[in-house]
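Milestone M4 deliverable, item 7.
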Amino acid sequence: RTSMNPIPTINEPDFALEVLKSRHPVLVNFWAPWSQSCARLEPALEEVAATCDGSAKVVKVNVDNNPDLGLRYAIQAIPTLHYFVDGRVAATVVGTASAEALLAKLRSLTR
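Output delivered:
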């Protein structure tokens, strides 16, 4: 299915502005294009992005293209999702998860 809300890909130069300095919570998907698990997670992330509709951001970082970010956030398996609140990692999910589970975690952090 084609997506109405593609998840923006950000790279190292944009990371501080888009994630660390964001006024809203940011769900960062550390992924790689060759990973089947990452591909399976994509529809759930699109649903989360559509549901949040501006109250939180969803972005993805290609770890193959941004090895320093992968190292900085100790990414050892993909997909790894970090929830950033006020510039800090507030929660982490490793592997695939449902949109419902991702949203529930996000809500628990934003109360």
